[in-house]
User: Fold this.
Amino acid sequence: MKPITTKNAFVCFNSDAYNQVNSYIKEQSPSMIFVLVDTNTHNDCLPRFLERLESHEIIVEVMEMPEGEDHKTIDICMGVWEALSEYGADRKSLLINLGGGVVTDLGGFVASTYMRGISYINFPTSLLAMVDASVGGKTGVDLGALKNQIGVINEGEIVGIDTEFLNTLPQNQMVSGFSEMLKHGLIYDKEYWNILTHLENVDISELDTLIYDSVIIKNKIVSQDITEQGLRKTLNFGHTLGHAIESYFLENADKTPLLHGEAVAVGMLLETYISTKVCGLTTSELDIITSGVFKSFPKVNIEENDIKVILELLKFDKKNSHGKINFVLLEAIGKPKIDCEVKNETILEAFEFYSNYNK
Ligand code: GLY
Assistant:
């Protein structure tokens, strides 16, 4: 698969990903190399990664953080910054983030801020990080329950996608990543959406192609608007309500936390319903989208009391401006509309539609 050129970097795949990283190290000769992993990727992915890193004189140190969204915090960043400092990392050091979206987001943020910025490379190991989090330079951490409130946009040098890592990924994490792929179809490419929603028994080469296509879509959007002034906002389809739901489930002791993609799937369905009320999405496309998403995602139980708090959390969405909540909606599959205002009663109706929908 040919590398995909992004605004300031490039995304490369499988054996080429290792070739590019090895060439980069040879050419740039970093003073030290740090590999950030979490507890899972330390065991499951690091040996394969290190085996493919060519031997050189440069010291390689591995730093491990605990796995999971609840560790995407400034406290963990403090630990990584301190470790870098204790190891003697300087401005010519290189950080390689080997993990899912939490590791690539947090590691990217640590690298972008340590000594005002050192170089970094993302090696995503989850489907979600491959098709979304590791591409486009968004880095950061959560602020309490609020997702990604602290961060910077700063692209790394390379994104290396080795799809073999997906063999170590639990099924629910695969499905979670699939939700961002569905989103790419919904906001950009109806044909891609149709392919994704008619898949049966995907083999690895087919999956590679689908991942490649998703990265192409994401990159086409991001490279035109890296700082999210307009077009890039379309990537937030499903995320306004999705993030609020994810935050609520993460913080509420009575709920089992949802994976990011699971929450986004609910958010996409709610925002699809809202689209029929606000910007003319047809009911036949509502049916197509609803059955397409429910094919992969079971219904999540959301009670009336939950909804009140979820609506409160919308006030903290990063797309808000001048006190207004700005939704990304769909006029049709492949035709998103940004900066849409939505009445509270329409959001409540959407929750009712979601809860009453019979698969
Ligand atoms: N994950 C959305 C974006 O990168 O803009």
